[in-house]
């Protein structure tokens, strides 16, 4: 701050030094003026000027230092009190800009909320004809056509479901309800709609769940498992998907393991990033890069740790480790 203050006042300092030098120069060329007296006067004025600069530095930089140290937010009370005319100009302009930005921000937030509510309402409206379409597809007698239509219906259904949960994600904390849930029941409910798709790809499920009851949120845990199961089916063929549970110390875990194409080692650190699909299969237009991102976001809110183990060409295993029992018991007791 001192260097910036001196740089700001460099023209004044240069002018003062020029005046002092001019006095010394006149003294040198005029022998009638005592040089020692002038030199003494120059020394005193330099000393006083230095003290003056120090005092002005403390006074003038206080406002700007507080302005620089304030948090970058829309809180007008955090703007320091101006004392000089120029500081008041800065305070006035800054206050007006912050007020304008705050109004624009509130307007944009309102618009986003309205658009989000409209989209959620639209998704719910679309689900009605989608359900009717599914009933009509079930009446199709041609087996091959029935399976193709069911597969396309599933794609639309899962895309709408993913979009719905993506819009609800910012408010997930208000939507959580922690209770005892049955993993086997949830998994059976999520696997059931996939049976036609699994038939096409000749995929089966092997469930081994010695630990089945855990504390979690049924809706959001179902969504997470739905994303992981659809990914496992999408990238597998002619194999079984093995689902096992157990305990790691006091923490329950669930592992979903497929024998699909796997994930490249260089991609593993990025699979939960929003929009990331793959570097080895970058041409795959079926991947959206949203599913695993939403899974990770939901897992963070549910305090679930996700570990991924994968080998290209050998398959992928997602392990969900749930928090200890006492963690959610404390939340339920609040």
Q: Extract low-pLDDT stretches.
A: none
- How would you characterize the largest beta sheet? 5 strands, mixed
Strand order of the largest sheet: 2-4-5-7-6
**Span of the ends, CA to CA:** 49 Å
What is the count of β-strands? 7
Total count of helical runs of at least 4 residues? 10
The averaged pLDDT comes out at 84
Shape: elongated
Structural class estimated from helices and strands? alpha+beta
From N to C, what is the helix and strand string?
A: HHHHHEHHEEHEEHEEH
- Gyration radius, to the nearest Å? 35 Å
Classify the helix fraction into a percent range.
Answer: 55-70%
Determine the strand fraction and express it as a percent band: 5-15%
Quick structural overview:
The chain has 334 residues and is of the alpha+beta class. The chain is 58% helix and 14% strand.
How would you characterize the overall build of this protein?
The chain has 334 residues and is of the alpha+beta class. It contains 10 helices and 7 strands. The strands form 2 sheets. It has a 5-stranded mixed β-sheet. A two-stranded antiparallel sheet has the order 1-3. α2 (10-29) packs antiparallel against α3 (35-69). The mean pLDDT is 84.
What distinguishing features does this structure have?
334 residues; two-stranded antiparallel ribbon; alpha+beta; 5-stranded mixed sheet; 10 helices; single chain
Write the layout of secondary structure elements.
Elements: H1 2-8, H2 10-29, H3 35-69, H4 85-138, H5 143-168, E1 178-182, H6 183-191, H7 195-201, E2 203-208, E3 213-217, H8 218-234, E4 239-248, E5 251-258, H9 291-301, E6 305-311, E7 315-321, H10 325-332
Parallel strand pairs: 2-4
Antiparallel strand pairs: 1-3, 4-5, 5-7, 6-7
Helix pairs in contact: 2-3, 4-5, 6-8, 8-9
């Amino acid at each position: 701050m001192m260097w910036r203050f001196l740089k700001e006042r460099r023209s004044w300092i240069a002018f003062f030094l020029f005046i002092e030098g001019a006095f010394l120069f006149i003294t040198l060329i005029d022998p009638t003026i005592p040089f020692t007296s002038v030199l003494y006067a120059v020394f005193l004025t330099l000393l006083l000027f230095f003290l003056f600069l120090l005092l002005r530095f403390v006074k003038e930089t206080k406002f700007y230092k507080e302005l620089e140290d304030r948090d970058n937010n829309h809180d007008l009370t955090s703007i320091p009190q101006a004392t000089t005319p120029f500081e008041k100009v800065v305070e006035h302009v800054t206050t007006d800009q912050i007020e304008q930005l705050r109004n624009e921000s509130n307007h944009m937030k309102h618009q986003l909320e309205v658009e989000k509510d409209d989209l959620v309402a639209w998704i719910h409206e679309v689900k009605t004809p989608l359900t009717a379409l599914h009933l009509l597809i079930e009446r199709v007698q041609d087996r091959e056509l029935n399976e193709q239509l069911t597969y396309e219906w599933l794609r639309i259904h899962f895309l709408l479901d993913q979009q719905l949960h993506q819009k609800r994600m910012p408010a997930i904390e208000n939507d959580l309800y922690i209770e005892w849930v049955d993993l086997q029941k949830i998994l059976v409910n999520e696997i059931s709609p996939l049976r036609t798709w699994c038939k096409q790809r000749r995929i089966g499920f092997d469930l081994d769940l010695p630990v089945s009851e855990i504390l979690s949120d049924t809706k959001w845990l179902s969504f997470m498992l739905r994303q992981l199961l659809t990914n496992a089916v999408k990238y597998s063929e002619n194999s079984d998907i093995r689902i096992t549970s157990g305990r790691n110390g006091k923490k329950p875990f669930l592992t979903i393991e497929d024998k699909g194409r796997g994930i490249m080692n260089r991609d593993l650190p990025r699979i939960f990033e929003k929009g990331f699909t793959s570097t080895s299969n970058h041409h795959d237009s079926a991947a959206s890069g949203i599913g695993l991102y939403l899974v990770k976001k939901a897992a963070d809110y549910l305090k679930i740790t996700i570990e991924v183990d994968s080998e290209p060409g050998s398959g992928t295993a997602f392990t969900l480790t749930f928090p200890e029992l006492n963690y959610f018991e404390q939340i339920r007791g609040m």
